[in-house]
Predict the structure.
Amino acid sequence: MGSARSDLQTFTVVAISCLFLTAEGGRPEVQGKAGGVVELECSFPLSGPAAVSSASLHVVEWVRQGLDIPILIKFGSYVPRVHPQYEGRVSLVRITALRLEGLQLDDQGLYECRILLLDEPTDELQNGTWTLLSVTAPPTFIEAPPPVLEALVGGHLRLLCAAEGNPAPNITWMKDGTVIQRANYQDGALSLRAVSMQAAGQYACHASNSEGNVTRVTRVKIKGPPVIIVPPKSTSVNMSKDALLRCQAVADPSNMTYVWQKGGENVYHIESLKSRVKIMIDGTLLISGLIPEDSGNYTCMPTNGLLTPPTASAILTVMHPAQALKMPQKTYLPTGMVGVVTCPAAAQPPLLRVEWTKDGEPLDLSLYPGWTVTPEGSLSMAAVNDDTAGVYTCTPFNSYGSMGSSRPTTVILQDPPSFSATPEKQYQQEAGGTLLIPCQGNDDPTVKVTWSKVDLARRISYSIESNGSLLLQPLTKDHQGKWECSASNRVASVKASTQVFVLGTSPHAATSLSVSSGVKQANISWEAGFDGGSAQTFSVWVKKISGRDNNGKREWFSVPVPPSSGTRLQVTGLSPATDYQFSILSQNKIGSGPFSDIITARTLDPPLRRSKLKPPGSLSADQGSAGVILQWSLPEAQHPPITGFVLQSRTEQGEWFNLDEDISANSSEIVVPGLHKDCVYELRLLSRRGDLLSEPSPSVNVSTVGMKVYPATSRLLEYVPEPLLAGVLGGVGFMFLALVVLLGSAWIISYKRDQRRRRKKHEPPPVIHKRSPSIKTSGTGSPDSVLKKSLLPASILYPTTSSTTTSSSQTDCSSFSAENHQRRKHPLSNYNRGRLMRTTSTPVSPSIELISRGPDGRFVLPPYDTFSVRSKKNARDSQLVGVRRSLSLHSEREDRKEPPFVLSVDLPPCKSAVANSASQICGMAQRVPDYSPYILNQNAPTSPS
């Protein structure tokens, strides 16, 4: 009965603490918990021997994989032999089963029983099946940080934490109760690099699995210099009061001392402060009995001997009445020059006024013309003379009052320095020679002569002779430039300058390099340096820096500059949206000069699509006192709204250039910039939204002939001999007289025809028609524009209905294009500009006759192939000479719809003096009232020219 109860208990323990898992073809598995009990059955294959009984002679042996000796051997009734690791924890039950008590995590592994039957005729050993023992256990630390750790600010700290258990435990770190992200630690170790004072705190390593969890806490202390937690604050305190500047810090170790400095010097080392300052135990600085000199910057510096101590500063301002500072006993002023007597003063609040005395009496400035007191309180004299000499004192005042007058200073007059020998304006000398430039002061021994080179780029060698002359030997390329000679004494300094040109050298570097980029091109301009005495040529060097060349390298390449291009060049074939570097290299027969400064520019992005923006309309131009005024009507509201307008211009059907790219979207009137005098321009506007542009507006033609607000493009009159000029002026006078006669004749004819029209009551057909807006051509109804269109002869280059009119003068008006192209701030892409340049023109038969002077001095009308005359009377009328503005004259047979005759005169080129006078005559003809109905568009504003 007792044996049965014992077997039941054993079975219950095994059933509770053990779980046998067998799989078909697999090994059994037994699971147990740490500290519990398990029993491992000894099973054999079905083909094995008969069950072992207690009566049979046999040997039972249990082995564990990985151990050299069995963990238990049992023979008969003898006491079993047990492995030392299992001493007292293993025994046999049910003859062959192994009972294992006090399970440990290390007990996990594979176990096998072996039976040797001694009753059998053969000593055959029978092995059982391997059984896997698995032990579950809560985490236990095998490595953990100590309770307290210390580290130095800026150092490295590593906290190790490792635990074992089954299942494998999960490690989590926390700081002051907050979980630290797992990315900051690996394999359970927490690493802190370059620790600061904020790294101090309580760290916890937490290990957990399904069986339980454990935690290990470590306190981290960071040692380092103090940390200021209450810095000083700037303050203002009245004079004679006490000042307190607080400064509080914390540190570990806490053995701190506070050091206060004023202007970088310890307050205890400053004579005026050391007896009135005290540093409190909490770091506060006490300054007793403030004086004006106590104002300044104070710095608090707590230290505990570790690393670099921190600092914090504040400004102390002592409020006091204005105080006169030390004034020199003698003040020297230059006779005949500007003189200044200063009043050194300290005032907080700021100075309000300064009162001066001269020779003990209050100074009355009204008695001394040219004498003033500056806002700083100094006494200024426009010209020092005998009235200036005397004894002066000053008394400064502020809102607090004054602390008294300054000590007196005696003004002594002294002649300023002068030159007895000065250098010439410029010197030219071959390189390698000797150049001596004279510069001597007067006989006053107090005068000192010095030399200096303006814009000195590098250190160069030169010497000054005893008489003040500059000696350059040997003369080198670096000596070229502007030099200044200065003569000075204690009252004044005078300067004389000269320019040195060194010949026979390579050119100097080009300057003022600028780049205006397009999509695939860049316009380069620069200023040429000195050519070294020989003609120089240029080449533009380009390097791509944001991409790679075909060979995989970024290399410089050069583009030669044609002599006709001067100091500007357009580099084409560039890549869009790419950064490039540009530099200029100059050369002459001596060799190559240095490269100019390198400038970086980026080409524009290619346009992705055409803009559907609406262009501005109704352009009109007028001449005002400030120049050509362009007006337009704003386009209809668009969404999104436009950001501005772009003004473009061209001459002689040339290329369109941007005059202004930043016109406000709200503007409807501007003064056109960048025009030249005596030229005719064609202007148009485009709407803009970012990089998108609209179609161009109808263009308008403007003329600057006779205007004074723009610089003339030709200065030929300055070089014309007086006899020739007299002859030219005589010819102009004769032409003027002839034009007057012609105008009179034209007026009579017009008057008679007006009478006939009144009788017939027919309206006169207009000669000058406004262009249709549907045709994309330039044009306007302004008088100036109509005049220019009428003056030009019809040809392939100058069609009468073309969108372009040429200048009334032959000056180089096209030069403005390059200048404006360089002046553009934000160049637009050539792609957009090229598309916007498309205009149409319709060639028509010419309607202007050319008049020339015959051998007898009379005006002659040459035959014109495309002009037909239907009546002899009209042919005779056509030989009348008209002004260059077209005049519509109706014939007697206008009811037959015969074509009207147009009178014109071909003026000399604009580049001569005659052109300017003729332009003025044309302007006079424009103002003849009787012809205005035939010349001008009555709806357009009258041109002031």
User: Anything to note?
Assistant: The longest strand covers residues 212-230. Residues 361 and 392 are 9 Å apart (CA to CA). Residues 722-760 form the longest helix (39 residues).
